[in-house]
Amino acid sequence: MKYLKRSKRKYRIVIDANVIISSIFGGYPAKVIEVSSSHKLFAPMRLKDELKGFLQKIEKRGDFTNLEDYFDYVLHLVKLVAVENPESISGDRTDDFYIAVALQKKVDFLITRDKDVLSCRSLRDWPFKILTPKEFVEIIEEED
């Protein structure tokens, strides 16, 4: 994987659980995690449970201690935000928590691979951009 330079700007970003989980396979999600330490990352408190649920689903396949350590590393980079009762916006209630955090923390970007969240791009004039990992990486690469 080509090394991605750190961004010149310090962005405020909400990162979705599916990006973190997808990052274990490489590609653009991994590049997002690669540069994440140079930004302020946010996610709803439920992110921990989503990652734990993923680990529970795959635990029958073997020992994933390294994966647990990786998730702990990523969680160390993310500020978890309490959200009580988010507005119903997306087709998936879980996604509403990510949108609520993005609004609450006044972020620049919400990075996701979730089709329900991506479909929300045109619902409103959001104060942040909803991007795929590839779109975010392209923004960082264009800064050079």
The radius of gyration computed from the alpha-carbon positions, rounded to a whole number of angstroms, is 15 Å
Helix content: 40-55%
Order of helices and strands: EHHEHHEHEHEH
CATH topology value: Rossmann fold
The CATH architecture can be given as 3-Layer(aba) Sandwich
Largest sheet: 5 strands, parallel
Distance between the termini: 18 Å
Total helices: the number is: 7
Name of the level-1 CATH class: Alpha Beta
Mean pLDDT: 85
Major β-sheet strand ordering: 3-2-1-4-5
Instruction: Tell me the count of domains.
Output: 1
Shape: globular
β-strand percent reads 5-15%
Note down, in words, how this protein is organized.
The protein has about 140 residues and is of the alpha/beta class. It has one domain: Rossmann fold (3-Layer(aba) Sandwich). Helix content is about 45%, strand content about 15%. The chain has seven helices and five strands; from the N terminus they run βααβααβαβαβα. A five-stranded parallel sheet has the order 3-2-1-4-5. α6 links the parallel β4 and β5. α1 packs across α2 and α3 packs antiparallel against α4. The mean pLDDT is about 85.
Descriptive tags:
5-stranded parallel beta sheet; alpha/beta; 144 residues; 5 strands; Rossmann fold
Question: Quick summary of this structure?
Answer:
The protein has one domain (12-142): 5'-nuclease (Rossmann fold, 3-Layer(aba) Sandwich), CATH 3.40.50.1010. Helix content is 47%, strand content 13%. It has seven helices and five strands, in the order βααβααβαβαβα.
